[in-house]
Amino acid sequence: MIVNMKEQRIINLNHLNILEIVGKGASELLQGQLTCDLEKVKNRSFELGAICNTKGRVINSFILCKAPSKELDSYWLICNKNMINRTKEVLNKYSPFYEVQIEELNHVNFYGVSSDAIKKEFGGGILENNEFYSSEGKHIFSYLQKSLCLVLVDESIDIFEEENTMDLDLSAWHLDNINSKEVEINLDNSELFTPHELNFDVNKRIDFEKGCYTGQEIIARMHYRAKTLPRLRLVKSNSALPNLNTKVLSKSQKPVGSIISALKFEQEFLILISIKATEEDILFENSSEILEFID
After folding, report:
1. If you compute the radius of gyration of the chain from its CA atoms, what whole number of angstroms results?
2. What does the DSSP 8-state code read for residue 38?
């Protein structure tokens, strides 16, 4: 973890939700559209994935897992609730060719939970990176070496309700994402970036060994033929917080990247940028401040 943050025990992540795909053709439909491999998703495992457009730009990203307590072929896509309709719209273009139902769920609560709270509420040891726990309406995802686990709880279960440390401020969650170089896709950044610009090849949201999916040819061509791939880097700034998608320039004023996400932490701004390799100092467009890498 690059930046130490104050411990946040339980954070209400009410900006997330689930798109459920159920039916005999669910696996085949998703395998042809998602960047991850459905064959690797078992009852006790999950995959990080994304869905792209024909130009290889990321429409949405999510956690993919098997839907619990379902006899039919069924999956959950866990993502920003503002992206549910857009993702459903994309999948519905192909759903008439498969026996599937695609619906948004509204009976699950979402939390970002620290390790000590996980141990207190669920007992046993702390989950390791990329582990998944699921039992009786409670589901825990640990991934990308994040300090906070993602916990899903059926709304009928009263877990966490007695805690007086529930936090509605998402700052700690966003800070954890920035430290882990995790980019949540939302309406502001959908279809703006390629997977490589968001480190999706590094954090395994793309499986380069699976078959075809929408945008796959362009993404594979970049991966195997590009001399220099863009990478996410973390920088800090003491000036005003710039807008998302602001260009990052070299000292010679050549565009080399853009801002992906940013957050004020104490007296500084932490900013995740997507940048191509450069030996020059970098700065934001319309700024004279030389930026300092902290990763």
Report:
1. 20
2. G
Residue 273: domain span: 230-295
Same domain, 115 and 24: yes
Over the stretch 18-61, which tens digit does the pLDDT of each residue have? 999 999 999 999 999 999 999 999 877 899 999 999 999 999 99
> Which CATH number fits the domain that encloses residue 129?
3.30.1360.120
- Alpha-carbon gap, residue 27 to 47, rounded angstroms: 14
Residue 41, phi-psi category: left (phi > 0), alpha (psi -120 to 50), beta (remainder): beta
Distance CA 231, CA 203 (A): 11
55 touches 42 (CB < 8 A): no
Is 85 in a helix, a strand, or coil? helix
Q: What is the DSSP string of 3-18?
A: S------EEE-TTEEE
Tell which of 227, 247, 271 closes a domain.
227
How many CB atoms sit inside 10 A of residue 60's CB?
Answer: 24
Other beta carbons less than 10 A from residue 195's beta carbon: 24
Residue reference for tokens 């559209």: 33
Q: What is the pLDDT of residues 56-114, one digit of tens each?
A: 999 999 999 999 867 678 999 999 999 999 999 999 999 999 999 999 999 999 999 98
